[in-house]
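Morning!

This is the sequence you dropped in the shared folder:
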Amino acid sequence: MTDELVSVIIPNYCHSGYLEQRLDSVLNQTYQNIEVIILDDASDDNGASQAIIERYRSHPKVSNIIYNAVNCGSPFLQWEKGLSLAQGNWIWIAESDDFCELNFLQTCLDFISRSDSVSFVYCRSCLIDAEGHLTGYAPAAPGGLYEGPAFISNFMTAGSSVWNASAVLFKRAKAIKCIDKILDFKAAGDYYFWCLLAETGDVGVIDEPLNYFRQHDGKVTPKRSIDGTEDHEVIQILHYLDSKHYLKGIARFRSMRHYFHRLFGWGYTSEALRKQLLREYSEIATMPVLFYRLDFFLYRFFRYLVRVFGS
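The structure's back. Tokens below.
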């Protein structure tokens, strides 16, 4: 088992309702060789977040508390700031609206001790609603240790199998070499980041639901999905994966099927935007758009049959 320092970065923006639970689930971990870095991105909540954060200022594990005077507009700029302050060899970005089991760190570090070349390890995530009720489980790769390129080809081409940063522990030295590539991203930077990290070593997947990923109306990601921001960033990532030969054979088919299904089923802000995105995805696809339209129709039709006759 490793006894290395873990730097826990907690970026917050207006999550006062969840912040105490988040901080307590970090500070009460069974693994205690940690430092906690709290970053508030100019929360506009009448001081509610600050009031909670200040209660933890004197905690011996809290090494930094920083309040931005102006919102930086990107979670990944906060990630970079946290990395620049971190002293640990391992980094955990514990999102302020999530929480976790108290053995999360210990379980991750025990897994890491199996290999000297692990870039990151992540666990399965429970999906919860705003009140903390379980609503399901986020998909993840099967548990095990994977070589990075194989992990990308098998689990990162049809969207990211790493749904939530709070579920991940990653190597600081490797992250520093990747972080600058995602600073212009607003929505899908984490997807790109995990791919870049996976190229630097092995990836571990823990088949235990130790992380609680909260879904609520205040999340930014859904808003950046319907206005096309996320798709435009994903297209950049897919071009990168294609240039590195990860989108070969069945991997390309799975990838394009996933994204065309989203294009046909998602509620975008306009049909003009949908058509623009169709053109951009088509530059990566090898099959015509008509093929994916038919495939999507059949997919929806069979789902309808299952609902009608399976009940």
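Headline: The chain has two domains: 6-216, 222-309.

More detail when I'm at my desk.
O.
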